[in-house]
Amino acid sequence: MTNIKPGPEKFKLRDYLTRPDCERWEIIDGVPYKVASKIEEKYQHISKNIEVYLVTESRWKDRIYQVFDATTDVIFDEYNLVKPDVFVICDTSRIEENKITTPPDLIIEVSSPSTTLKDKREKKRLYEKFCVKEYIILYPEDELAELFSLNNDKYGAPEVFNWDETMRTESLELDLHLWEIFKNDNCSRSQTEGVWTED
After folding, report:
1. How many folded domains does the chain comprise?
2. Which of 66, 123, 175, 184 has its CA 20 to 30 A from that of 52?
3. Largest distance between two CA atoms of the chain
4. DSSP assignment of 78-138, as one string?
């Protein structure tokens, strides 16, 4: 994700709307960032894993929430628009077609070496500012996850989880089995032994 230094005036939502449809952009505090059009397969795979996991769990446990991916914009205000990899809205009455104009309850970013700083700094500040209850960063390279939870309108130090552990998300009252998230098409981990096993 590459940022473009703004001029004297901040970049606004109306400026975003004038960009070509083929370009993908985010705006954080009035600074525009061009999102890479091509994402590595392993990051796409993990993003899809978490999306499918959340949808499946919601149906199985009869939970009422809706899961979205990066094709849906989250608009916080005229200076802040992002495309989280995965996010969840619990109150479905707040959902508008093709965009969200209210803070999600949970946001998940699948971090790559080129986006790690922004995920941990700019986006963390943004999500804290707009009171996103929980923010999860997944690190495919290290097979780790960080969970930031809102407490008195602030994120404290994150809880850190390994691929073979279970993460509890209080906003959804749901356990995330991370070995199901970090798995890939060729290999799967044994839940009981915690080791790689060939399919």
Report:
1. 1
2. 123
3. 57
4. TTEEE--SEEEES-GGGEETTEE-S--SEEEEE--TTTHHHHHTHHHHHHHHTT-SEEEEE
pLDDT one-digit tens code per residue, 33-62: 988 776 788 899 999 999 999 999 987 777
Q: Which domain holds residue 157?
A: 39-198
Model confidence over 148-158: pLDDT tens digits?
999 999 999 99
CB 42 within 8 A of CB 111: no
| pTM, to two decimals | 0.86
Identify the CATH number of the domain in which residue 157 sits.
3.90.1570.10
141 within a domain of the structure (yes/no): yes
3-state SS, residue 151: strand
Residue 11, both tokens: 């970049």
